[in-house]
Amino acid sequence: MSTATGSGKSTAAWRNWAGTVSARPAREVTPASVDELTAALRQAKDDGLRAKPVGTGHSFTAAAATDGLLIRPDLLTGIRRIDREAGTVTVEAGTPLKRLNAALAREGLSLTNMGDIMEQTVSGAISTGTHGTGRDSASISAQITALELVTADGTVLTCSEKENPEVFAAARIGIGALGVISAITFAVEPVFFLTAREEPMTFDKVTSEFDALYAENEHFEFYWFPHTGNCTTKRNNRSAGPEDPPGRISAFVEDEILSNGLFQVVNSVGRAVPATIPGIAKISSKALSARTYTDIPYKVFTSPRRVRFVEMEYAVPRAALVETLRELKAMVERSNLRISFPVEVRTAPADDITLSTASGRDSAYIAVHMYRGTPYQAYFTAAERIFTAHEGRPHWGKLHTRDAEYFARAYPRFAEFTALRDRLDPDRMFGNAYLRRVLGD
To answer: What percent of the chain clears pLDDT 90, i.e. is strictly above it?
Structure first.
């Protein structure tokens, strides 16, 4: 095994969080500096090994799998610098989002928007296009102002709108295909308060009023419980405060029923006896009552997720959301499927990142989940058929069956990305089977 900063033969298989992917690399390295990272890549190149950085394994796809050099970023962590005048923070690529969020809060700063899970490393999160929900504020990648990328030949590129702009446009969501990110500069702002309002709402009401709910709230999302006509909605909007976090009982009910302990039990029962799922869903969907609370952003946007699952998520044009979701509900109702996880719906404004799921178009996201160990293929296949009929773009880190031919049609700038990959990694040092499928060879 590797030493803290060295490299050696690997005997352990690498496995992702969901258990959907495993790989046995030839060796591992845990570099403690950019110099050590470039040296490791040059050595791998000399030895004819492919290379891949891995974060915390929260991607469901094999984007990070390698049989060559596995690069662990555990020692490339922490804040390099804060520029309050420019409103930016530069952070090492291996820094977990939860550590970044806490460190920024101590400095009186915050990202503008974020996803609901913060276990990922910053580089892993941006490489696959991690996002939250927002009317005006976009994904984590869209908040990047600069990044540092180590290419296949060991060159360290600084990328921004002014410096290597074509690399910057692509590498903010690069799927690990262009090089290894060593540092990221994010736009930040003074920390602020968000007031969250959560309340149950029927599926028919949410879908019929979706445009207004979207327009009236900075951050709107909702969960639909399959086998029911019930949803739970969440609206996050900036407020003057003061801080008023959820009470202990309210937090327990929300976290445990929707996310963790009791949810684990419910899913275990459902996996063992699928016929119980519709009844359980009706009870679960009515267990969550309305509540309002106020806190700093990461305490409102994010929540713990201890129940293991597999997930597929597609971005469709925002205008197509309601029709797509109604088709999904109709499909579930006429099928024999038994689905114990709620369907999550979020939005993002158009951005200018080459392979962002929101590239060039206002988007809405529909995420379908299944409890780990439960057969998911029939559900995901049927859902994917609906999503692709609406020009859907799958999340790069979540399960899907699309290939390069599909993406060439789905992304107007797809050829721009693959041409850049040809230039930066002509020998496919950062390639693997997943990238071969989604980008071509």
So the answer is: 81
Q: How many Å apart are CA 107 and CA 104, to the nearest integer?
A: 5
CA distance 39 to 101: 31
pLDDT at 439 exceeding the cut of 90: yes
Q: Could you check whether the bond before residue 242 is cis, i.e. omega within 30 degrees of 0? A: yes
Question: How would residue 441 be classed by pLDDT, with cut points 50, 70 and 90?
Answer: confident
CA angle centred on 414, ends 56 and 381, rounded to 5°: 60
Q: For the segment 271-297, what is each residue's pLDDT rounded down to a tens digit?
A: 666 777 777 667 666 667 789 999 999
Residue 55 makes CB contacts below 8 A (sequence gap 6+) with 64, 73, 94, 120, 121, 123, 124, 125
Residue 58 has pLDDT above 60, yes or no: yes
Q: Is the dihedral of CA 346, 282, 20, 8 positive or negative?
A: positive
Q: How far apart are CA 33 and CA 76, in angstroms?
A: 6
- Residue 34: CB atoms within 10 Å: 17
Helix/strand/coil (H, E, C) string of the chain? Answer: CCCCCCEEECCCCEECCCCCCEECCCEEECCCCHHHHHHHHHHHHHCCCCEEECCCCCCCCCCCCCCCEEECCCCCCCEEEEECCCCEEEEECCCEHHHHHHHHHHCCEECCCCCCCCCCEHHHHHHCCCCCCCCCCCCCHHHEEEEEEECCCCCEEEEECCCCHHHHHHHCCCCCCCCEEEEEEEECEECCEEEEEEEEEEHHHHHHCHHHHHHHCCEEEEEECCCCCEEEEEEEEEECCCCECCCHHHHHHHHHHHHCHHHHHHHHHHHHCHHHHHHHHHHHHHHCCCEEEEECHHHHHCCCCCCCEEEEEEEEEHHHHHHHHHHHHHHHHHCCCCCCCCEEEEEECCECCCCCCCECCCEEEEEEEEECCCCCHHHHHHHHHHHHHCCCEECCCCCCCCCHHHHHHHCCCHHHHHHHHHHHCCCCCCCCHHHHHHHCC
Does 119 or 5 have the greater pLDDT score?
Answer: 119
For 174-216, the pLDDT digits (tens) are 999 999 999 999 999 999 999 999 999 999 999 999 999 999 9
Quick one: pLDDT at residue 268? 66
Supply 244's token pair: 């008023």
Q: Which two tokens stand for residue 169?
A: 């446009």
Q: What is the overall mean pLDDT for the chain? A: 92
